[in-house]
Amino acid sequence: MSIVHAVFAPGFFSNGPVQAALVMGAVVAAVCAPVGVLAVLRGQSFAGHAFADITSTGGSAAVLLGISPVLGFAASAAAGAASMEGLGARQHGDRDLVTGTVLGGALGLSALLLYLSTTRQGTSGATVSVLFGSVFAVSSANWPWVAALGLPALALVAAAYRPLLLSSVSPELAAARGVRSHLVGAMYLAALAASVALAALTIGAVLSTALLVGPAAAALGLSSRPGRAMAWAGAIGVTSVWAGIVLAYDSYSWPPAGRGWPVSFFVVALVMAFYAASRAGAHRHGRSPAGKAA
Amino acid sequence: MLSGLFSPFMLHSWEATSLVAVAAGAVGFFVVLRGSTFAAHAIPQGAFTGAAGAALVGTSTLLGAGVFSLVAVGALARWGRRGRHDVVTALVLVGMLATGSLFLSLGSQYAQQTFSLLFGEPLAVSSGYLLPTVGLAAACTGLVLASYRRLLLSSAAPELALARGVSPATANFLFLLAVGAATTLALPVVGALLVFSLMIGPPAAARSLTARPGMALWLSVLLALVTAWSALVGAYWSNWPVGFFVGAAAVFWYVLGRAAKAWGHRPRNAPAVGSSR
Known about the structure:
By secondary structure, chain A is mainly α. Chain A is 77% helix and 0% strand. Chain B has a domain at 8-193: ABC transporter involved in vitamin B12 uptake, BtuC (Orthogonal Bundle), CATH 1.10.3470.10.
């Protein structure tokens, strides 16, 4: 009993926000798993990171307007995904420059929106909650939106599963088989945007990449079969979020302030630990480490 | 409204933003020329962690940002060539941001400090910053000027540079060091997330406006100064975050550069006289 208490501080299981956070984290990690595995296979993990930064603008705007942040995250992630489609054809160096410029503009706009919501509404925590998030602070009003984003994302991936995999692994073969790569790519980007929005709601806009591609990359080090990797990614993601929640709850009695450490920090750190362990394991078994080519 | 803009109190802010702009404009020229936007994105995020750690233990922001910039420079010089845009890099960047947010949350002014480190606070530049800022700016610009030919050659024609005895690894390391120095001094002023905009916006426009590298370097510094000064005036006048003005100016410069390029490439309408390009 004392061991249980040492891991789960008293009141952990009867705490309402903790229960909500556990369910929410599991749902989001489960949606991110298949989408993230495809992101790594398609070599778009860095693109995912770029438009994760952009989502901070939508999240800040939502706070200022007083609507659900997940709506802002989703709208700006969709805009990011659409502009990424448009930039795809450009040459490499110029694309980096455009991405960087848009990223800077979006972050600057976030700064303004966050400043305005801090001064007008007195919500001084807006900066931290949009950029670094806290799964404990996600109100139950967001639940319908989480369902409305998560279910279609899973449905899109399930519907286009085979052509998506084929076009990720071998675009030429997919074209020869008559896969309409544009349609498939657009469906995938929609699912990616929804997942980024959910991850941003859970661990914050600028950290959302960790939840999206981290578990997926770790899972691809454990199994090279996509279906199995998605299951692993789900398990790793849910474990990271749950363990992060436990640690954050425990940390209220930790030094230096007794205020608790940020839950997003624990989640990111655990995801990175899983990834490092998987890389080390794959290296020892002589398998090519996942994500290298991405 | 603007009457206090040149008060003694604001003098430090003017000096600091000017120094930051000169360094960022000069280094940014090579960032754009070498296509190293990624390094200019990654080093400030590393420096953010250091600045946050410094805020926690109570030392100077510049010291924390400087040490962590050096770490980031070392990591990029060592591993930057391989896994450039892959999972590892994305995860390491996010991990550094998360660690920075942890450091700030353990301190006493979480929200306020997070905001100023990420989005800049030029109006709070104190006299203690000035001496190290001057030193860093001088080191940074000196490094760029001293290795100008070497950097230019290795950026434009790596094989030729190698034949002339310029090692690409050394040139890259010198370049990254300059980015690290510029980041360190720019971080407290324009913020970790917007250092990047100041480093790529002005030089991108400069490069579109002139084809001569020496001219483009000076133009880049000039445009960076205009950006930083107008951002400072804007921030003073509106009380809005300086990062907003820097980000918006970078977008403006980029669009201007594209427009200038498009104008210059109109073969049918442009008169043929005097245009030998």
